[in-house]
Write a structure and sequence with these properties.
single chain; mainly alpha; 12 helices; 0% strand; globular; transmembrane; DUF350 domain-containing protein
Length: 300
């Protein structure tokens, strides 16, 4: 009987922590939708329900999913010492993750894809840009989640580590974007990838989405080899950057090999770049993400 009472007591605590985390998570997910409208300077309800703006909907969906990914990093692990600390931790990590996702979107706009006005193009119902925007948010969230799981505690050092990891992530994503631009130009008589995306070439957006998400997964592999310590934070984050770039190159090489096998006999440049074959681009995206998932699982 005493054992049963103790078990009920434990479950009550567990349910209380669960209720706190889920309530805050739903609140933050709802906030993300309205924050997306504010950042685009539009009424989200108007865009989604009256204007039927699919591009905006895809962009918001990417942001909501990204926040959900970040929140899994905030709630994974042991419960806090009290209900208040659990709520504070969830709000702190979740709220900060929400901010970083939005900051990452700005960096993606101004640095990685600096020739595109993504906000304006999404309002103009450009599905291609909506997909790219969603993929960028998800890629950023994957790395933020990895850093959240990597760090320990809730203090200033933790947030410095999260911010630094975020900067490392954005650096790698910008690098991979530049490399993909050069590859596209080489394969298409020096045409501009960003210009092609702005014209609504959906197949290119699907392929690019797979590339940035697989890159994010590759960068997270560093968390399995580096031990978090506030005293060696700079060294560890430098390790994240070097390891992330190395893993990205390995994933790119293995993905190229896998694509030749999976899509044997298909000219990818002709099908995706020139004929805008969404089906082939989707297989490319799936292959890129699959290779990154397999490799990161092996590293773990």
């Amino acid at each position: 009987m005493n054992t049963f009472i103790e078990l009920v007591g434990v479950n009550q605590d567990l349910f209380a922590y669960l209720a706190i985390d889920v309530s805050i998570a739903i609140l933050l997910l709802g906030a993300m939708r309205f924050l997306s409208g504010l950042s685009a300077k539009v009424n989200s309800t108007e865009e989604l329900a009256k204007q039927d703006n699919f591009a905006f909907g895809i962009s918001v969906a990417g942001s909501v999913l990204a926040l959900g990914i970040v929140l899994t990093g905030a709630i994974t692990g042991e419960a806090a010492s009290s209900y208040a600390m659990e709520a504070i931790g969830m709000l702190a990590y979740g709220g900060y993750g929400l901010i970083l996702i939005k900051v990452g979107r700005i960096i993606h706009d101004k640095v990685a894809l600096q020739h595109l006005d993504k906000t304006a193009l999404i309002i103009e119902k450009n599905l291609t840009i909506g997909i790219i925007d969603a993929a960028g948010a998800i890629a950023t969230a994957i790395i933020i989640r990895a850093v959240l799981l990597w760090v320990d505690g809730l203090d200033i050092s933790t947030f410095i580590a999260i911010t630094s990891g975020f900067i490392v992530a954005q650096t790698v994503l910008v690098i991979i974007t530049r490399l993909r631009e050069k590859q596209y130009a080489k394969n298409n008589q020096e045409d501009c990838l960003q210009e092609a995306l702005s014209k609504g070439q959906l197949a290119l957006a699907i392929r690019y989405s797979g590339q940035v998400i697989s890159t994010a997964l590759a960068v997270t592999a560093a968390s399995h080899f580096l031990i978090y310590s506030p005293e060696t934070l700079v060294v560890n984050l430098l390790g994240w950057l070097i390891f992330g770039i190395a893993m990205t190159l390995i994933v790119a090489l293995l993905t190229a090999l896998a694509k030749h096998i999976v899509l044997w006999g298909i000219n990818l440049v002709e099908e995706v770049d020139q004929q805008h074959n969404i089906g082939v681009a989707s297989i490319e995206m799936a292959t890129s993400i699959a290779i990154a998932l397999i490799l990161t699982a092996l590293m773990a």
